[in-house]
Amino acid sequence: MSFWVTLWAAVFGGASAAFVPRVAHRLAVPRDTRPRSTCADCTADLPTWVRAGAPCRCSRPPVWTMAAGAVVTGLLGAAIGPAPLLLVLLPAATLGILLAAIDLRCLRLPDALVALLAAATVLPLSLGALLTGEPARLGRGALAALLSGAIYLIIALLPGAGLGLGDVKLATVLGFTLGFVGWPALAAGLLAPHLINGPVALALLLTRRAKRRTALPLGPALLAGALVGIVLA
Ligand SMILES: [Zn+2]
């Protein structure tokens, strides 16, 4: 583990996550609705997409979002070290924080953002694998994406699964990177979301903050699971 790589990765993650709340606030709207141009709480204008810190003057500073960003990228920096893979995964992690923030607010994973995450991971990783003469990693990533997508599609089709097609698409995209890293990463990345969401759902039930039929977002657990897979592998 390189201390400096870990530190700079964490600083990058914390700083870039500061820009997440404004974008998340504007994009956390129901399906087929235009992005919000005014604050959902105080109706003040939100003229731009770019604002570091709180999404609106009426909201609190996004301490938890920035902490999550720093922890996620710090873990990636510690696990991967100074390697091209880290350069690809740092911006991808910020996109992941944005997706999680939107899913937590409105139970949606916008297609455009999932597609952006796919482009930001699949394209550079594929190019890197071809340039370094490791096409096998590319094939493994593609196979893992198909496998991960198929497993989540089957779960989504089960009655009462509480899992949407957005989750299936995200699991497919994350499957590529996990497979690219290796089969153990994919196995951990597929298993971990359920180990994470199970206790969370139980805690919410016990504290009466959720009912048995309350829909819980799976996106954050899928993203956290992928992180666990990459870090452990
Ligand atoms: Zn406001």
Verbal overview:
This protein has 233 residues and is mainly alpha-helical. The protein has one domain (3-232). The protein contains 9 helices and no strands. The longest helix is centred in the last third of the chain and has 24 residues, at 183-206. The two termini are 14 Å apart. The model has no long low-confidence stretch (mean pLDDT 94). Zinc ion binds next to loops.
Write the layout of secondary structure elements.
Blueprint: H1 3-17, H2 20-27, H3 63-80, H4 84-106, H5 111-131, H6 135-157, H7 165-181, H8 183-206, H9 219-232
Helix pairs in contact: 1-3, 1-4, 2-4, 3-4, 3-9, 4-5, 5-6, 5-7, 6-7, 7-8, 7-9, 8-9
This protein binds zinc ion (ZN).
Apparent shape = globular
Strand content: under 5%
Number of helices: 9
Structural class computed from helices and strand pairing: mainly alpha
Radius of gyration: 18 Å
Largest sheet: none
Q: In terms of per-residue confidence, which ranges show pLDDT below 50 for 5 or more consecutive residues?
A: none
Q: State the total count of DSSP E strands.
A: 0
Order of helices and strands: HHHHHHHHH
Mean pLDDT: 94
> Which small-molecule ligands are present, each listed once?
zinc ion
Distance between the termini: 14 Å
